[in-house]
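Appendix C reproduces, verbatim, an entry submitted by the partner laboratory led by Prof. M.T., so that reviewers can inspect both the input and the predicted structure.
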Amino acid sequence: MTWRLVDLLSGDQVEQEPSSLYSVSRTDAPLVYTVPHAGLLVPVDLVDTWNLGEAAVQDTDLHTDRLYDLPGTRVITSLNRYAVNMNRPRWREKGVSEYDEEDALRTYLKGMRPSWAKPIQNDWKQALLGVYDMYHAAVRALLQERIDEYGYVFLVTAHSMNAEADDNTPDSGRRPDVTICTEYGRGTEPSVIEAMQTGFPDGFDVAVDDPYAGGFTTEAYAAGSDVVHGVQIEVNKACYMDEDSYAYEADQAAVVQDALRDAVSRGLDEVRRLEDGDQD
């Protein structure tokens, strides 16, 4: 089955197989990135089912597929987060009535408007959840491959955030340049976070678990695990793009990329140290 999809930013339409709506690029290191919110594609047949428009573009983690083009294995979806949110639980049978109850197909836009304008048809519900299942099957397989080879893996969920807080977020005002999200310490050891913080140069405003503490990916795969160390990174969009035009600012982004590369590398080195038993 081929889907016709529309790009929410450009308006261009494409046809793709559902299995091509996520991609995997591999390296041999015990490091896996997931990039769940960079995509801009939604099925044309479902445009009227959702409350999309400009707010959906503003809430997309634009250009994070480029920003996190760093050493490590990456899993990326080209579907927009309001079509399928890969960083939420699969489906809540009891329904969704508030921000903390979001699932893969039902989330909230700016202004706390629900993303859905009317119930999704069951055939499309199952089709979209099928892509969700393929994406997460790929994530699980990659994590297990690294665990089998190295005995551990460092999982980084790659995000960005709007420069200013929105109505559908837990904070207010200007946000830090970078937030390292740990699920309040459940994703990895404090020493890994401390090592990552040293990778950001002077002048970077780096917070931990503020305004976000993480999401489904870190919770599902790393929290409570003895062999998966997980963090979610949020980069302030003002640090690498123009939020008005949505343009990628390559020079600014290069500075952020260097900092991310160093921070993640230091975090991975600390994971290795902990897992190799060298804790002196």
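The two ends are 56 Å apart (CA to CA). Additional entries are available on request from the coordinating office.
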